[in-house]
Write a structure and sequence with these properties.
This protein has about 290 residues and is mostly helical. It has helices at about 1-10, 10-35, 40-60, 65-80, 90-115, 120-130, 135-165, 165-170, 175-200, 205-220, 220-245, 250-275, 275-280. The longest helix has 30 residues, at about 135-165.
Amino acid sequence: MNAVARMLAHPFIDHALLAGTGVAILCGLTGYFVVQRGEVFAGDALGHVAYTGAMAALAAGINPRAGLFVATVAVGLALGVGGVRGGTDEVVIGSFFSWVLGLGVLFLAYYTTHRSGGNGSANVNVLFGSIFGIGASAALTAALIAGGAITVLLVISRPLLFATIDPGVAAAAGIPVRILGAVFLGIVGATVAEATQLVGAIVVLGLLAAPAATAARLTNRPWRAFWISALLAVGAVWAGIALSYRFAAAPASFTITSVATSGYLAATLFDRFRPPRACRSGPQYC
């Protein structure tokens, strides 16, 4: 308890927990639908779009947060509008993904040669995050943005689940499946933009997909898995922050994603080796 009290006495830990908790809840809830809709590849692509957007903003001399949000939300909406079910076309995403990476390198080259004199670590922070470097104002902003995105997601969650399970029947029932899918991918873009600032564009997919995949392994009830995913993401962030503080050589982005993916590995092993449901009801049913 004394060690925890000493850790919480540092303002940068408080800021990291405030921003990290809000973003983790958003990642967990959004990630559940990302996994269920088979849009993990789109989430990965948006992580690289976030990098390019941030580097474009830095090259232009403006706040990288603006570049993150404009790029990821715009591309997410575009993928949703152009997708067959408001979601993904892997050929389109793969081609666009490769071009965006090249564009990010172009902006990086310009930023390095023209504007990086006063902020040489910005490229590293975009790639790998800087959860311990976030200030009080930025932490509050991140929590508020996460809260707004969570609110929108909760509003559309029921029709989105219907459209995820059976898009054909949902469309026949009058649900605007494509528009709903586009809005959802816009939320995914906002989620990636916020999470990139904390864990980095390279590993953001781990926090977006691993807790949701773990929750899906633990229960087949959609809403229970939806909330378990959020709890697992928060647990990964809290544990990752504590581990990174305890072992200073381990970056927070590594510890957070390691905890998240370890949870998925444990859930996979548990799901594989546990007895069938009938056997758990009694040996006479095996």
